[in-house]
Amino acid sequence: MCRYQCRTRFTARLRSSGDSSSLARSAAYTRNGAVVMGVGDRIGSIEVGKFADFVALDRDVLTCPVDDIRDGRAVLTVLGGEVVWDVR
């Protein structure tokens, strides 16, 4: 759902920066949430030494039609560095 919001909503901050790409919106969505929670040094972006819980979907949500995002299915889920779901 957050990727759908990233593709369909603009924030005032992104409008003012002039960067409204899907990738920039996605990065801001995760990074800003971590910063607000006070854990931006540990999560919120993909960097060496940070925790990275993530889901791989069956489509590229940055380029597929917006209406198809909600139909995406998880093919891989990683929590705490451990694979907890793998459709293979």
From TrEMBL:
Matches recorded under SUPFAM superfamilies: Composite domain of metallo-dependent hydrolases
All copies of domain Amidohydrolase, residue ranges: 19-84
Classification via InterPro entries: Amidohydro_3, Metal-dep_hydrolase_composite
Signal peptide: none
Pfam families per record: Amidohydro_3
Transmembrane spans: none
Stated name of the protein: Amidohydrolase family protein
Natural source organism: Kibdelosporangium lantanae
